[in-house]
Amino acid sequence: MSDEIRPNDALIVVDVQNDFCPGGALAVADGDAVVPLVNRLMPRFPIVVLTQDWHPAGHASFASAHGRAPFETIDLDYGRQILWPDHCVQGSRGAEFHPALEASRAQMIVRKGFHAGVDSYSGFVEADRRTATGLAGYLRDRGAGRVFVCGLATDFCVAWTALDARAAGFPVVLVEDACRAIDLDGSLDRAFADMAAAGVERVPAI
Ligand code: VGL
Ligand code: ZN
């Protein structure tokens, strides 16, 4: 992208946590490769937000909570839910940010997925599509202009966060080199199609 980062642009760094990195409970291939890129991006933005997947033990998104196998789907009261291995359990090492992530660069950390019965891929609105995290209000209060999104995983939490940033009225830019995907049954193609339809701009790097 040719134009410069502007004085009110925000960067949202999604879920750069141990469980989404190699060796973690829900490892994204090459997930830790985003860490140096994110570390270089953060100091360039006046507004920096981290999201942190933050589930209680026995969370409704965990296959183990339903006696099912990971990556099966189930219908919960708010809709279809992919069942995941137990991951990002509150207070666990897996839920911590990657140790090399310079988390001190962020002014705000948004935890999500903390309601036992509701998942939240998005940093803005939970999977019931009603319960807000407060992030839209935070960004508005800070006077945010554009919202740049990066992190893990492109096709789940990054995409849902980007889509909800659009829905909240922000221009959104996905920074592709600072993302990695899970890619489950075509989820990455679908995520790119959904983001394109919603007007999310995609740039290889900034
Ligand atoms: C995520 C699945 C479950 C993500 C979080 O960060 O993309 N994916 N929880
Ligand atoms: Zn999760």
List each distinct ligand once: pyrazine-2-carboxylic acid, zinc ion
What is the typical, i.e. mean, pLDDT?
97
Shape: globular
Number of helices: 4
Structural class: alpha/beta
Low-confidence stretches: none
- Indicate the proportion of strand residues: 15-25%
Domain Isochorismatase-like: 10-200
Keywords: Hydrolase, Metal-binding, Pyridine nucleotide biosynthesis
Enzyme class: hydrolase
GO molecular function: metal ion binding; nicotinamidase activity
Report on the architecture of this protein:
α3 (154-167) runs parallel beside α4 (187-197). By secondary structure, the chain is an alpha/beta fold. The model has no long low-confidence stretch (mean pLDDT 97). It is built from four helices and eight strands; from the N terminus they run βαββββαβαβαβ. It has one domain: Rossmann fold (3-Layer(aba) Sandwich), CATH 3.40.50. The chain has a six-stranded parallel beta sheet. A two-stranded antiparallel sheet has the order 3-4. It has helices at 34-41, 135-141, 154-167, 187-197, and strands at 10-14, 47-53, 73-76, 79-82, 108-112, 147-152, 172-180, 201-203. It is globular and about 50 Å long. Bound molecules: pyrazine-2-carboxylic acid (VGL) and zinc ion (ZN). Zinc ion is lined by residues 53, 55, 61, 84, 87-88, 113. The site of zinc ion (ZN) has 7 residues, from loops. GO terms for molecular function: metal ion binding; nicotinamidase activity. Pathway: Cofactor biosynthesis; nicotinate biosynthesis; nicotinate from nicotinamide: step 1/1. It is an enzyme of class 3 (hydrolase). Pfam families: Isochorismatase (PF00857). This is Nicotinamidase.
